[in-house]
Structure formats: C-alpha cells, structure tokens
Amino acid sequence: MDNLLIFLDRFLEYFICFAVFVTCILIACFLGIKVRKAKNAKAEAVATKESENSEEE
To answer: For the residues of the chain, what is the DSSP string, one character each?
Structure first.
C-alpha cells in the first residue's frame, strides 16, 4: 500500500508540473499570436497611409 501512495504522490507531482508547463506554453502561443496580429495591423495601416499619400501627389 505504501508503494501505491508513493507512486500516486510522484505521479501527481509530475502531472502538476506538466500541466503548469503546458499552460505556460499555451499562454506564450496566444500572446505571440496577439502581438503578431497587432504588428501586422500596424504595418498594414502604415502601408495604406503611405499609398494614400503617394496617390495624392
């Protein structure tokens, strides 16, 4: 019985570490996507503004 409790203790310990690690990875992915979309939108706005300025001249 003691071996089972030790096994479950270690299993839960590693499972919790794994869950925290996966959660950090997911947060990093979502933040990366959000930052990239914002950067793309800003670059597109600058390009649109430059093209409008060149058409007016």
So the answer is: -HHHHHHHHHHHHHHHHHHHHHHHHHHHHHHHHHHHHHHHHHHHHHHHHHHHHHHH-
- pTM score, whole prediction: 0.72
Q: How far apart are CA 52 and CA 38, in angstroms?
A: 21
> Length of the chain, please?
57
Q: What is the CA radius of gyration of the chain?
A: 25
Instruction: Show pLDDT as tens, one digit a residue, over the chain (57 residues).
Output: 899 999 999 999 999 999 999 999 999 999 999 999 999 999 998 888 877 777 665
